[in-house]
Amino acid sequence: MLKYILTCVLFLVGVELWGQFNWYNPMKEQFGVINNQGFVHDGDMFYTRLPFRAQSRVREPVWKLSRHSSGLSIRFQTDASCIQIRYVVSDVLGMPHMPPTGVSGIDMYKIKDNGWLFCSGTYHFGDTVVYKFDDLVVDDFHSTYCLFLPLYNEIRWMEIGIESNKFFHFLPRLNQKPIVVYGTSITQGACASRPGMAWTNILQRYIGCPVVNLGFSGNGKLEDEVLDFINEIDARVYILDCVSNLTKDAMLTEHTINAVRKIRSVHKNEPIVIMEHAGYSNCMTNREREAECDSANTKTKMAYDDLFEMGVENIHYICREDFNFHEDAWVDYVHPSDVGMIQKAVTVRDKLIQLFDAGF
User: Fold this and answer.
1) Which of 61, 76, 233, 290 has the most beta carbons within 10 angstroms of its beta carbon?
2) What separation, in Å, do the N-terminal and C-terminal C-alpha atoms of the chain show?
3) Pick from 70, 34, 72, 40: which is nearest to 229 by CA?
4) Contact 113/205 with Cβ under 8 angstroms?
């Protein structure tokens, strides 16, 4: 009986506090607010990475994974010292090798003087996921925040709440040319501890440019149907990071060549970056894993060399040694830890800086 009474009291307190907040739904804005989205949303496909018309064109696993909000973000301004975010997701909250904070959580950063300050909040995972950020330092008039969305779940609805007497304004989506990354579970974000630690999100903070995350767990296979959608995006750079899903594919060299030529058939001059497999955590202790990784990277390098000999211009390469993963850079045999995610983002950042300095 006492437990029931306490539960009711806590619920009523929560309702009372929510009643003191104004709630803002990104879906109800008159302008686009979702960043790092390669396509304008259509129908009910608001927090997704491929448009609704892709459902009939890509394989079912790719379509389902494209509904995950990995890499997407929302920016807003407010002078509130307390911010709450509540939302509902469609699938399981966590996985054995990846916590709920990464699979289904959100991350909030304050953007100040072109720097990114992590905002640590409290959270509750249930039928409705709730994050609360208290006692926030407010700048002279208002602060600017960026919200990174869940890596491995689909958002059904979301609202951002602030104190009822405070200012709030969504910022329009960035209109810069993005960097597009086509990849695997590692690109999608496995196994970052939280969304801000996915390597594409780290990269965005490093370079200040939108990054479109088209990582599909277990399904980054350089498929024509996905490449057709990639070709619809006018990007600054195109990155191919699919080798870890193609290690046993005898046609890996041909698939890589086809992917580059397909992109180049539409985008004549933009840089295309091919990335090798960054390695397995047990390569030094498992001969089969080492041989599998070496074979896949050899085939990938052959594709790059053949493309170069064909005269395909402005293609670039990142090899396994460039990543130089630390011994603690993995969560399991292949998926990076936060340490590995940082190393990958730094490596890609350095390559992009070289390209940008060269005028691309």
Assistant:
1) 76
2) 68
3) 40
4) no
Q: Which of 320, 317, 316, 259 is nearest to 289 (CA)?
A: 320
At residue 114 the predicted structure's pLDDT band, cuts being 50, 70 and 90, is confident
Q: Identify the burial level of 13 via C-beta atoms within 10 angstroms of its C-beta, where 0-12 means exposed, 13-18 middle and 19 or more buried.
A: exposed
Distance of CA 335 to the CA centre of its chain: 15
Nearest to 189 by CA among 256, 103, 128: 103
| Predicted TM-score (pTM) above 0.85 | yes
Rounded Cα gap, residues 122 and 145, in angstroms: 17
Which domains are assigned to the chain?
A: 20-170 (2.60.120.260), 179-357 (3.40.50.1110)
Rounded CA gap, 77 and 79, in Å?
7
pLDDT tens track for 130-189: 999 999 999 888 999 999 999 999 999 999 999 999 999 999 999 999 999 999 999 999
H or E element at residue 202? helix 199-207
Q: Each residue of 310-336: b (16+ CB within 10 Å) or e?
A: eebebbbbbbbebbebeeebbbeebbb
At 280, the amino acid letter reads: Y
- Assess contact for 336 and 330: CB atoms under 8 A: yes
